[in-house]
């Protein structure tokens, strides 16, 4: 009986060897995809923070006082909380009379998390 082909045991050993060889590659691929996702979230958060800061610093908005603000932003499947804090002496723990020049802080959070993804801080001279 001279049959050609593979036995079931030979096939199982071959699959096992291929799996063992592919495991490190899949681990690296998983890390890269996770890293890309984090970078994407960071880019979205920084873009939101920059937009909020630009609005606070825009000259035409200086006709009225810059105030603290919190808003929810939904981008695709992601929800963010954008917080603008103006150190004007009105908030808890702020120096009386605020700071000179005016200090503006922007923080971006995932909607229900307590640790910010992105932070921007700047100073603005009063006009």
Count of distinct strands: 4
Could you say how many structural domains there are in total? 1
Trace the largest sheet across and list its strands. Answer: 1-2-3-4
Instruction: Summarize the amount of helix as a percent range.
Output: 25-40%
Structural class call reads: alpha+beta
Unreliable sequence segments: none
Distance between the termini: 98 Å
| SSE series | HEEEE
Estimate the mean pLDDT confidence: 86
Measured on Cα atoms, how large is the radius of gyration?
Answer: 27 Å
Largest sheet: 4 strands, antiparallel
Overall geometry comes to rod-shaped
Q: Counting H and I runs of at least 4 residues, what is the number of helices? A: 1
Strand portion, in percent? 25-35%
Describe the model.
By secondary structure, the protein is of the alpha+beta class. The chain has one domain. It has one helix at residues 8-57; strands at 69-75, 78-87, 102-110, 118-124. It is rod-shaped, with a radius of gyration of 27 Å. 10% of the residues are buried. The model has no long low-confidence stretch (mean pLDDT 86).
